[in-house]
Amino acid sequence: MQVVTGTDTIYGYVKKYKIKTAFGTDIAFSPALAEHQAQGIVDLKRWFTPAEALAMATSANGELLALSGLRDPYSGKLGVIEQGALADLLVVDGNPLENIDLVADPANKFLVIMKDGSIYKNTIPK
């Protein structure tokens, strides 16, 4: 119960003081849990708008990681879509700004998945 109360408190401060916050998990090494990590982004709707939650999981992560200086493992710019940036892109079947729940179903709702400039999935009808 303390964790839930603490989460409510800290996210209240994040909103009140406009603290840049990134989203992440520690489940990257568990394939079973990793399949459901997008649900964590969806769960942020308890405190944030869909746009805020998506920014926390994308551009804010890139901006905050860049602050790590020499420890930053990436050689290019993160969190932006521009030439020379290290951008991973998703094409979603629907508008996650209107329905954040779409991101919790990547198998069915992510039509295109591009990572490091390579297409890993493309199910857009031709």
Please tell me about this protein's structure.
- The structure is a single chain.
- This protein is 37% helix and 12% strand.
- By secondary structure, the chain is α+β, with helices and mostly antiparallel strands.
- It has one domain (2-122).
- Strands 1-2-3 form a 3-stranded antiparallel beta sheet.
- The model has no long low-confidence stretch (mean pLDDT 87).
- A hairpin with a 2-residue loop joins strand 2 (110-115) and strand 3 (118-122).
Topology of helices and strands:
Layout: H1 2-17, H2 31-34, H3 38-43, H4 50-57, H5 59-66, E1 89-92, H6 106-109, E2 110-115, E3 118-122
Antiparallel strand pairs: 1-2, 2-3
Note the main attributes of this structure.
three-stranded antiparallel beta sheet, single chain, alpha+beta, 126 residues, 6 helices, globular
Mean pLDDT: 87
Trace the largest sheet across and list its strands. Answer: 1-2-3
Bulk shape: globular
Order of helices and strands: HHHHHEHEE
Supply the number of structural domains. Answer: 1
The largest pleated sheet is described as:
3 strands, antiparallel
Number of extended strands = 3
Rg result:
16 Å
- The span between the termini is 50 Å
Query: What are the segments in which pLDDT stays under 50 over at least 5 consecutive residues?
Result: none
Secondary-structure content class: alpha+beta
The count of helical stretches stands at 6
Helical amount: 25-40%
> What percent of residues are in strands?
5-15%
